[in-house]
Amino acid sequence: MRSTSLDLVKWLAMLTMVIDHLRYLWPEETAWLFVVGRFAFPLFCVGTAANVSRSRPGDLYSDNNFRYLSWLLAFSLISELPYRALSEMSNTLNVMPTLMLGLIVAWSVHHSDRAGLMLGLFTLTVATVLHDRLMYGAFGVLLPP
Fold it and tell me: In this predicted model, what pLDDT tens digit does every residue of 34-44 receive, in sequence order?
């Protein structure tokens, strides 16, 4: 079932992200758009947490979760090339891997059975190892849960 509140959060997240990315078109005049764009990540995390909370606890390995994770992985891979083109000097990956790892940790908290907790600990270990390469680091991975 669709939630209009959750849809609003998603649209606000996308809007603030697009506004942030507009600064790449006119860097001298629009540097302040960076500030507006800082709202996008927390809003995407709220959307992720809301989606996780809508699933039934204990149903970690569902088709919906697999599809959700697959789409995030696909967008992580697809968006890396444009991110590299716009942010040549960045030493981090785009934000999608951080959101993807955050989703997995949120699942592990929500589905707090043994398999979920093991998956969460493994994911947090990966996030800690990749801390310097992840946008917002391992702390960003902890935001959705």
Answer: 888 889 999 99
What b/e string do you get for 49-65 counting C-beta neighbours within 10 Å, with b at 16 or more? Answer: bebbeebeeeebeeeeb
Query: How far lies 139's CA from each of 64, 105, 109, 126, 134, in Å?
Result: 26, 12, 15, 12, 10
Structure tokens at 42: 């927390």
Show the domain range for 57: 4-142
pTM more than 0.85: yes
User: Total structural domains in the chain?
Assistant: 1
116 burial type by CB count under 10 A (0-12 exposed, 13-18 middle, 19+ buried): buried
Question: Of 71, 76, 93, 96, nearest to 84 (Cα)?
Answer: 93
